[in-house]
Amino acid sequence: MFAVKKLVEKASIKKPGGNSSDGLKASDVDPRLLFHNGVPSGAANFAFDNTHVILAISTKDGRIKLYGKGNSQGLLESSEPLPSKFLQVWDIDKKLLSDAYIVKEEITSFAVIQHSLYMYIGYSNGNISVLKIDQEPWHMVQMQYTIPLSASYGDSEVPDDTVVTHILPQPAAESKRVLIIFRNGQIILWDIRESKTVSKTGGNMSQPLHSETKKVSSACWSCPFGSKVVVGYNNGEIFIWSIPSLNIGRDSSASAPDHNTTQNTPLLKLNLGYKSEKIPIGSMKWIYAEGKASRLYVMGDCDDASSLNSLQVVLLNDNIESRTIKLGLHLSESCVAMELISAASNEQSKHRQESLILIGKSGHIYQYDDGLIERYLIQSQSKSSPSLPKEVTVKLPFADSSITTSKFISNTTDVLNIEEEYYRELIKNYPPLIMVETNQKDGSTLMSSAKFTGFSKVQNLYITGHSNGALNFWDASCPLFIPILQLKQQSENDFSLSGIPLTALFFDSTYPLLVSGDQSGTVRLFRFKPEPYTTNSFMSLTGGSKKGTDHIIQSVKVLKTNGAVLSMNINHSSTHLAVGSDQGHVSVFSMDGPTLLYQKNIASEISAGIVDLHFLTCSLQGFEKNILVVGTKDSSILALDSETGNTLGNGSVHPKKPSRALFMQVLDGQGNSEDATTKQSHILLCSEKALYVYSLVHAVQGTKKVLYKKKFHSSSCCWASTFHSNNDIGLALLFTNGKVELRSLPELSLIVETSIRGFNYSPPKHGSFSDIQMCCSSRGDLVLVSGDQEILVFSALVQRKIFR
């Protein structure tokens, strides 16, 4: 996920008087992806291994995500963030690229011979090679055996467009025969041992005058014994062709004689409406079912999801009936790929549950229960009115509402100390993202298994605020986040969680205390009881009843400010709470009451909004002064008397060309802004276009003194946060194009530049929330949640081993 890493040292733009500290060094950092959970962005294609029950999803930027039994997941990344033009072999255990097969010709198809280490490779020039995969280490060896175009076509004149589009080993004879389908429509059955063509079909079909040449776009077997193949074309036609079979078995269809013959007439033409709408056949999958329920899934290659023919499933039995029994599956978007997967039971002799999975144009994954589709088709034969099967959008568990704000509190030490058996049991009961096992349980089992006796036991705590007003607490010590506590909507007589989206969070584990702010300007203070808690299972505090709350919640106080809450901070010495809103209001409360001490509006001609607030005590003109530093959305910095709200000095300081501010932090060298001394402290301001480090003593007096500055040129910054390594402070920056920079403070020297593959940020529209939520712990551990599909966790510092 982190790709194209570069280590660079750059001098700061300005050098203030005095010696600068050594600061953060390249040897202190090692930005890396720790784990990925969910569906990667840019999903483009599927592959499924029925033997080992592994599903693979490839992306447009060179990644492969694997899903297996027991909630196992793995992410493979090629060296270049591009689709591969070459054949690659990956060592799944080591998650490393073992070998790449690079040839001059374009590889247009390949097929692995099941239960073997051999595969066919088809090229654009019509030739076919055979490769063998050798172990220790895994690498590909080209065999002497080939199927040249001249041999497969015979002595006849070779026509144009002989690109190999499909290589299909014949069922029940995989090691003896292989079906080769060329883009021009020619279908050839090749005898492997005798190295000769057994039969030809599909070619020289009559084309209407003045029409484009029909080309093969999809194909699959439609018989368990390899006597029928379904071929789809770019003009929307679907033909079933008869193929000679060594073992017809109970298949009663009349196959072609088993000698070198040529047939140009299909066994059957399926009219599903694709031809009339000029929709190419993008993909086809066939499921064999004894009796009368064998079915063919057909996906049209079209951008219009409203088309009635975008995705269909049709009964395809040995005895074709006069009436076509079919079902149209209609999604909210067009699809780019589909696959049939078989969910395995632990008992090998038991049944396997089939599912249809689809990749939408947006990259979302959808899943259908094939059993419900089969039932619908069977009931349709009796002309009854069965209920339509519904798709399930693949989402992260418990993502019942989108995340709108978050906090991450990670282990302050570099070592994880957990109960291994406890986490093993939780992961065992974790609801699957994509169903590949029939015996996996739902989320309620996980909730009942999770123990929560207090925050001090949770080494990595992730807190999320949601669009429905809910608060969720997660144990983030392993790749699958475990829910441990949930605060849902309450009545006005209880917690008054109103269902309004949460916009800001503040958490202090020493009390412990949680403060939440929402879009309406409501602020809630949750004080928790001393640990350990008497409950030992997942807590969901919901509804108007206070049942269960006495175990954990000591008190809840509700405050009100003007505008959506953007920022909050607490002065521990005075127990004052500062709240900043999107309308430019700064409200300071005494948490003992709670009582509003004062409210001040900071006007802006460009963009109102308070992005950050910091309490600190500093010396001004020989006197100790308690101040509140305010950072606004228009990149202004203002100092207030924290007791009265009066403006200090000559007003605010701001850049000549302000841009939207993202982050502000008071830097004192120790990371404790409340105890900052004016002489050694700085103010860091991060905006979309630049970084600024100001002198604190000058900024408090309203005087602009820039100590360090860095402008961004290639792309805009979309997120920023500071982190600590011992006594040194670092700055993490994420840009809209996925670039990541780690810089030392206060000099802003670039230490590491890298990137997050697949990251694509677009700013949210007014009044809405971004699909991407990011937060960083004080120790440089970053959690990125992209919509409801994926969670990524990164670490910036070296030797951080705090995750299972």
UniProtKB/TrEMBL annotation:
Q: Which SUPFAM superfamilies match?
A: WD40 repeat-like
Which organism's genome codes for this protein? Arachis hypogaea
Q: Which Pfam families match?
A: Lgl_C (PF08596)
- Biological processes annotated in GO: exocytosis; Golgi to plasma membrane transport
The entry's cellular-component GO terms read: cytoplasm; plasma membrane
Q: Which InterPro entries match?
A: Lgl_C_dom, WD40/YVTN_repeat-like_dom_sf, WD40_repeat_dom_sf, WD40_rpt
Where in the numbering of this chain does the Lethal giant larvae (Lgl)-like C-terminal domain appear?
Answer: 683-800
* PANTHER family with a match to the protein in the record: LETHAL 2 GIANT LARVAE PROTEIN, TRANSCRIPTION FACTOR WD40-LIKE FAMILY-RELATED
Q: Which domain of life is it from?
A: Eukaryota
UniProt keyword list: Exocytosis
Q: What is this protein called?
A: Lethal giant larvae (Lgl)-like C-terminal domain-containing protein
